[in-house]
Each structure stands twice: as structure tokens, then as C-alpha cells.
Amino acid sequence: xxxxxxxxxxxxxxxxxxxxxxxxxxxxxxxxxxxxxxxxxxxxxxxxxxxxxxxxxxxxxxxxxxxxxxxxxxxxxxxxxxxxxxxxxxxxxxxxxxxxxxxxxxxxxxxxxxxxxxxxxxxxxxxxxxxxxxxxxxxxxxxxxxxxxxxxxxxxxxxxxxxxxxxxxxxxxxxxxxxxxxxxxxxxxxxxxxxxxxxxxxxxxxxxxxxxxxxxxxxxxxxxxxxxxxxxxxxxxxxxxxxxxxxxxxxxxxxxxxxxxxxxxxxxxxxxxxxxxxxxxxxxxxxxxxxxxxxxxxxxxxxxxxxxxxxxxxxxxxxxxxxxxxxxxxxxxxxxxxxxxxxxxxxxxxxxxxxxxxxxxxxxxxxxxxxxxxxxxxxxxxxx
Length: 384
Description:
transmembrane transporter activity, MFS, 384 residues, Growth Hormone, Chain: A, 2 domains
């Protein structure tokens, strides 16, 4: 349990830093003279550079365990933020965001794989994944408003420096605290799975169609993260307002993550129901004059609180608990692709077509594409 609490803490710090930047990156890029299309590429390149990091993480976590990748990811991301505090041109921000996307790609697969190795019981694993979701949400409830407030109080440069030092401190703490029997057990299970795996098969035992779930959801989320900061024109005066919007979104997630009885429902059904609710919320955002935006964002957050733990539990179930580093690595790759496509397309269509309606269409197509019945899970590997 101690190792789980420690991982939750490090993920909290990382997610706090990440979400604190959501309401301020777009105004910061605008202050540097960036156009909407460039901002879309800036947000998309962050996701694109996740891909090589995800591929390395999948193999590395299965072979060497999670600790070194958690430490590397936190410290490197902190250094990038320190440099980001001194950029003076849009292209410099683009370069640093691409580096940040690469180094942070290691964190999520490493943490999720270590969490999944803490138990072989499906219910307990579901609770651990929900704990990951709660940690993510708690960090994202406060961080957008805090990030916006810091910029209002101290400016962009000092805000980025503060967030950078916070990540570096968390990375150093992770080096000394992630240890013990759970880490050794993860290494033993990971190496056994790697030795038994078919080297001719690149993908772990999860059908490709299931990776459309994180891809489609991440695409819609990328559209939202691009479009919402522009609601008030991307001006510095609207930063605090945007931060509150993101906090409302996270509060909605916290509500459904606290509904522990949902874990009794099939993760596949939870994922489908959450995607349908998310699609309806995007449709609601296309007519803000009829439905207040805070209401829609709150319900949208509730749908996300259902979807993400359900997807992680579904992948554990379908894969039978084998090669979890690779499973979560490919999940992260799918999310990276979606997060890359979403803001870039939204940036190109921003002035001519509603990106929110595009997200609605993407999610409805996702529901149509997914199979009516999930594949039966493999038998879990017995642990002596």
C-alpha cells in the first residue's frame, strides 16, 4: 500500500504541473505572437513526441521496471519548464513542448504498470486504477485555477519556474522512495512475461480495435483543450476564467470517481456509457446559449471520471495481466495520436467549423466502430 501511495503522490505532482499549464499556455503563446493554427501545432507536437517515448517505455518498463523511468520523466520535465520560463519566440516554445512531450511519455506507463503489479485480483486492480483516476482528478481540480492565479500574480516566467522546481523535487524524492518488495515483484513478473512473450508479436494481447477507445477520447479532449482557452479570445484577462472552467471539469470527474459501486459494472459497458455521455456533452457545447457552459463541463467531467478508469481496467482484463508495461505503453500511444490529431484539426477549422461538433462526430463514430461484445479475458496468471 505504501508504494501505491507514493506513486499517487508523484502522479499528483506531475498532473498538477500539467493541468496548471492548460489555461496559461494558449495566452502565453498569444503573447509571443502565435496564431491559432500555430497553437494547434504546439499542442499537437507535445502529443506527437509522446510516441517514441511510449515505445521505449513499453519495452523498458517490462524489462527493467518502473523506477528509473518515473525519476527520469519528472526531473527532465522540470528542467524543460525552467527553460520554458525564458522563451521569447513561438518556435522556442514549440521545441520545448516537443521535448516535454517525449520525457513525460515515460511517466504514465511506468506508474500504471507498477500499480497493476501490486495485485492480481481484478477488483483490487480496478480500485488501484480508480485511485490513479482520483489522483489525476484531485490534481486537476485545483491546478488550472492555481496556474491562472500564479500568472495573474507573478507572470508567466515565475509560474513556469515554480512548476519546474516542483517537478524536479518530486523526481529526486521518487529516487529515494520507490523501492521495496513491490518493485522486486514487478521486475520478476515483467521479466518472466518478456521471456515467455512471442518475439514476433509487437502488440500485447489486446485487440487493436480496443485502442480506438483511448484514441477517440484523447482526440476529443485535445479539441477541448485547444478550444476552451480561446473562449474568451485567448487574452490574459480571461486566463483566470478559463482556469475555473478546467476546475469545474475536474470536479465533475471527482464525483463519478467517488462512486465506488461503478467498479462492479463491466469496464467495457462503463467505457461505452461514458463515451456516449461525453459525445452528448460536446454536442451541448455547440449551443452555449441554451445550456450553460459550466453545467456541460461538469457533466463532461463526470463522463471522463467513468471512461479513463474503465479503459485501464478493460485493458488489464483483456490482456490477462500480461506485459502490462507494453499494454499501457500502447494505450499511451493511442492517446498521444488522438491528442496530436485533435488540436491540429481544431486549429485548422477554428474559424470555419465548430471543433466541438467535430468532437461529437468523432465520439459517435467510435461508438459505432467498437464491437458489440468485448473479447473474453484470459485466465490470470497464478501467483504463489
